[in-house]
């Protein structure tokens, strides 16, 4: 029998449309599916218990899916270089196949493994429709503005999806190694719990189908509505694909091609516009991945260096109130409590709470970025950094710094009846709609809900002055 090859699963926890896995299968060698818990990530600054729970559920479903082909997922814990070297020795594997990960840590790790492992490592571009380096300006430099990036991205030819490989996996019984299954949180050294939604390839596909059948046609209007349940088509207008894309339970090609099909079937100009907008959001995901690849400094400071001089407030109590959803602004508090419970909040809610932290409280956006990474099941360094810098006004194609969200009017506009607020803030359950967005304006506000932590009009002026001064300092320094 030919020497086996290893497919190292990382952010591609699926069998269908997995480019490295398909190539490993095409090699004709039996494929050993492997996942490695990397202690550098488990102990890293972006560690998140909710995301770890989400990941372990995804691994369990991948293992079960492999089981239908008489295979098992080989799960190990340790430095990937050491684990792969050991596994190659134990199994006689002749090569490793993997899909590239474009974040700075993963790039360094993979480059080292490729250079030093004593068997070949074959790498594939799978996690984006167009990898970094493919979407460049005519002078071959990266785009830092979204609209021209998008135009160029749309003009490039797209790879079709590939099917699920069958009959290529090394039968579990044929390997004299220990399997052990998916470790518990305790076995990985963590306590606590989190209730995650179903994390499987089939859950990802059925959610996408449901979105395409019910909501994509009204995505433009629906995506900003504040609602809690992504499955409720009368309210939330989004797809809830981000957690599945995060660990590759679905591929971006599968989502893109399905959206293109929806475009062909769209019957009205409004539904066609909606599908276009959905595809545009998928391109934002690619844009931010490219930005971080080309400008890794963004992970440690402002993309625009002038804002590194900004005088942020050191206000630990305010930061704590924001984290716990006790700012006295219902829309901010509802979103932060949803984040705690679900490990996910809609894009509009992310923008509102990020603006509140970085502008109203004038607290460094990096505090919020870190907190989001600790909480989000879809937490992704490139997307999260891009979203925070955009909202704080320090990023690439950023929202101008003088645009500051008003938490009351945002709430009135995107949750007019206050249903989202009532769902997450039981203290406000009996407050009628006109007051629920600003309960402090009532004659007798609910006693168990805090007054606003800061006056928005005052905070707005304070933020404008601080951002303006940072820009001016930079101007003087030139
Ligand atoms: C402060 C802040 C932090 C964020 N952190 C993350 C993060 O850690 N991980 C993450 O995946 N997204 C992040 N986003 C982007 C966006 O909020 C989520 O991708 C989106 O809310 C996910 O829900 P959905 O899948 O239902 O999106 P949909 O509206 O259904 O969009 C479909 C897909 O398009 C992509 N997308 C949508 N909006 C954006 C956007 N603004 N930027 C980039 N890609 C987008 C996502 O992959 C998403 O799954 C952040 C945004 C902000 C403002």
Please give the share of residues in helix.
40-55%
Q: Tell me which ligands are bound.
A: flavin-adenine dinucleotide
Q: Secondary-structure element sequence?
A: EHEHHEHEHEHHHHHHHHHHHHHHH
Give the class from helix and strand content and strand pairing: mainly alpha
| CATH hierarchy class name of the largest domain | Mainly Alpha
CATH architecture of the largest domain: Orthogonal Bundle
The number of distinct structural domains comes to 3
Provide a concise account of the structure shown:
It is built from 20 helices and five strands. The protein is mostly helical and 478 residues long.
Can you walk me through this structure?
- It is a single chain.
- The chain has 478 residues and is mainly alpha-helical.
- It has 3 domains: 5-126, HUPs (Rossmann fold, 3-Layer(aba) Sandwich), CATH 3.40.50.620; 202-294, Serine Threonine Protein Phosphatase 5, Tetratricopeptide repeat (Alpha Horseshoe); 305-473, DNA Cyclobutane Dipyrimidine Photolyase, subunit A, domain 3, CATH 1.10.579.
- The chain is 48% helix and 5% strand.
- It contains 20 helices and 5 strands.
- Strands 3-2-1-4-5 form a 5-stranded parallel sheet, with helices on both faces.
- Strand 1, helix 1 and strand 2 form a beta-alpha-beta unit.
- Helix 10 packs antiparallel against helix 11, helix 11 (269-294) crosses helix 16 and helix 13 (330-342) packs across helix 14 (347-360).
- The protein starts with a strand and ends with a helix.
- The model has no long low-confidence stretch (mean pLDDT 94).
- The structure holds flavin-adenine dinucleotide.
- Residues 223, 238-242, 245, 281-282, 284-285, 288, 346-347, 350-351, 354, 372, 376, 378-380, 383-384, 387-388, 391 line the site of flavin-adenine dinucleotide.
- Flavin-adenine dinucleotide (FAD) is lined by residues 223, 238-242, 245, 281-282, 284-285, 288, 346-347, 350-351, 354, 372, 376, 378-380, 383-384, 387-388, 391.
């Amino acid at each position: 029998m030919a020497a086996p090859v290893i497919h190292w699963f990382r952010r591609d926890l699926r069998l269908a449309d997995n480019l490295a896995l398909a190539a490993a299968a095409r090699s004709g060698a039996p494929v050993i599916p492997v996942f490695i818990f990397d202690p550098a990530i488990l102990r890293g600054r972006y560690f998140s218990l909710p995301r770890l729970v989400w990941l372990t559920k995804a691994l369990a479903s991948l293992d079960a899916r492999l089981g239908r082909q008489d295979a098992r997922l080989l799960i190990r814990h340790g430095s990937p270089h050491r684990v792969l070297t050991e596994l190659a020795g134990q199994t006689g594997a002749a090569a490793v196949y993997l899909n590239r990960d474009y974040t700075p840590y993963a790039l360094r790790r993979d480059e080292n493994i490729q250079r030093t492992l004593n068997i070949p490592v074959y790498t594939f571009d799978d996690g984006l429709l167009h990898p970094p380096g493919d979407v460049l300006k005519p002078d071959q430099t990266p785009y830092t503005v979204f609209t021209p990036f998008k135009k160029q991205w749309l003009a490039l030819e797209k790879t079709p999806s590939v099917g699920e490989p069958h009959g290529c996996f090394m039968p579990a019984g044929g390997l004299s190694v220990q399997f052990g299954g998916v470790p518990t949180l305790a076995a990985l050294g963590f306590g606590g719990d989190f209730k995650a939604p179903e994390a499987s390839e089939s859950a990802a596909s059925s959610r996408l189908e449901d979105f395409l059948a019910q909501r994509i046609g009204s995505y433009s209007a629906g995506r900003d509505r504040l609602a809690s349940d992504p499955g409720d088509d009368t309210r939330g207008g989004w797809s809830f694909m981000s957690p599945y894309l995060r660990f590759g339970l679905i591929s971006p090609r599968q989502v893109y091609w399905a959206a293109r099909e929806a475009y062909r079937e769209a019957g009205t100009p409004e539904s066609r516009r909606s599908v276009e907008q959905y595809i545009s959001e998928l391109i934002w995901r690619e844009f931010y991945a490219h930005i971080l690849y080309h400008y890794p400094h963004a992970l440690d400071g402002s993309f625009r260096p002038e804002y590194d001089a900004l005088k942020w407030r050191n206000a630990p109590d305010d930061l704590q109130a924001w984290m716990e959803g006790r700012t006295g602004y219902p829309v901010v508090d509802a979103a932060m409590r949803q984040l705690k419970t679900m490990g996910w909040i809609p894009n509009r809610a992310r923008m509102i709470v990020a603006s509140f932290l970085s502008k109203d409280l004038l607290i460094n956006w990096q505090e919020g970025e870190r907190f989001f990474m600790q909480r989000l099941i879809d937490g992704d360094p490139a997307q999260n950094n891009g979203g925070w810098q955009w909202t704080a006004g320090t990023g690439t194609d950023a929202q101008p710094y003088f645009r500051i969200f008003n938490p009351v009017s945002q709430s009135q506009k995107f949750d007019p009846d206050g249903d989202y607020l009532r769902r997450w803030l039981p203290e406000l359950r009996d407050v009628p709609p006109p007051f629920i967005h600003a309960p402090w304006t009532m004659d007798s506000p609910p006693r168990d809900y805090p007054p606003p932590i800061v006056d928005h009009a005052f905070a707005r002026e304070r933020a404008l002055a601080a951002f303006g001064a940072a820009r001016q300092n930079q101007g003087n320094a030139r």
